[in-house]
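Hi R.,

As promised on Friday, here is the backbone we talked about, encoded as structure tokens. Could you run it through your design pipeline when you get a chance and send me back a sequence?
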């Protein structure tokens, strides 16, 4: 298994991290089984967030509150705060420490903020982070974003030791530039959305592509044992980025080029109750994966909610990719209706 030093943090971690967002959808006992197997197979970096409902608590449960079998110092925990001022950050850190059952956080990241906090900027956000660092409550400070300009600003500021940003073989020159900027500034690069929110069909191709970057740490989102087993198999017998995998990547890039929903969920909530991050990707799901789960009565009801869209465009203002979401929803709904009627045939 490969290990990497995470930028200027000096943290030595297994090159493949555990993304704990999806365990929100698993039970406590299911999570425990998955996380303990990940740990037993060398994964020592676990990324969660205050915003991921019970994810922090489930990690604590999985590691049994830390003990001789799961010593705290052997587990590198990264969590996040959505706070953009001192009061909210200080509130979040207390909850996270309690949820995780620890008295310190290895990497504390400001979570997709609307600006890049800096020292003395008036918000108090970075000053709060630095004070927590000075007190030893957090060991390292990181930044996460879905916006390239903010990610670059954070790297250039010299204030953040890591950057977490969407990165997969579907991303383009701008994202590659951020990876290289992070390398040049010795900032650890943590890749979220390495499976592009589930749209990438080949985990093997995704793994081989990301693994070709020696300064990128993917956090693979896992909610099922079968998913973990896939990535563990690649860690033990690393796939090469050969002609076969390059062809898969080429074909998927062609199919998914242009505007598509990455499923980040930052557009939510919708005032009309539309599950945007699912409905805006439904057409892609149906074409790329078995269609039956997307054609159930429940899925049909979700898609029908699109008819209630008032085009208030609140979702557009929140979307980090600046997508025209109402238009994307309309296109998906029209396509979906044609599939239901049999006008468009799918597998």
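Update: got your reply. Pasting your designed sequence below so it's all in one thread:
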């Amino acid at each position: 298994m490969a290990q990497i030093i995470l930028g200027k943090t000096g943290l030595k971690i297994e090159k493949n991290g555990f993304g704990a967002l999806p365990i929100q959808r698993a039970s406590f006992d299911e999570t425990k089984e998955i996380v303990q197997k990940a740990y037993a197979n060398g994964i020592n970096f676990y990324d969660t967030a205050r915003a991921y409902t019970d994810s922090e608590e489930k990690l604590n449960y999985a590691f049994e509150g830390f003990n001789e079998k799961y010593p705290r110092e052997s587990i590198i925990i990264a969590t996040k705060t959505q706070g953009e001022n001192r009061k909210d950050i200080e509130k979040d850190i207390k909850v996270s420490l309690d949820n995780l059952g620890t008295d310190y956080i290895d990497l504390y990241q400001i979570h997709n903020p609307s600006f890049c906090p800096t020292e003395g900027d008036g918000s108090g956000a970075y000053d709060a982070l630095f004070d927590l660092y000075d007190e030893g409550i957090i060991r390292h400070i990181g930044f996460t974003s879905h916006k390239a300009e903010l990610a670059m600003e954070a790297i250039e500021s010299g204030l953040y030791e890591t950057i977490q940003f969407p990165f997969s073989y579907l991303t383009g020159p701008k994202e590659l530039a951020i990876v290289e900027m992070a390398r040049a500034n010795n900032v650890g690069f943590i890749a979220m959305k390495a499976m592009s929110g589930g749209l990438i069909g080949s985990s093997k191709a995704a793994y081989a592509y990301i693994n070709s970057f020696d300064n990128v740490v993917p956090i693979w989102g896992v909610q099922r044992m079968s998913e973990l087993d896939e990535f563990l198999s690649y860690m033990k017998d690393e796939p090469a980025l050969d002609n076969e995998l390059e062809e898969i990547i080429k074909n998927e890039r062609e199919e998914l080029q242009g505007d598509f929903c990455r499923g980040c969920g930052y557009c939510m909530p919708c005032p009309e109750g539309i599950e945007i991050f699912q409905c805006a990707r439904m057409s892609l799901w149906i074409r790329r994966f078995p269609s039956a789960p997307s054609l159930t009565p429940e899925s049909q009801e979700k898609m029908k909610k699109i008819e209630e869209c008032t085009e208030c465009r609140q979702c557009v203002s929140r979307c980090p990719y600046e997508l025209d979401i109402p238009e994307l929803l309309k296109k998906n709904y029209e396509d979906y209706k044609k599939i239901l009627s049999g006008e468009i045939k799918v597998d």
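One thing I noticed while checking it: The first helix runs from residue 28 to 40.

Thanks again,
M.
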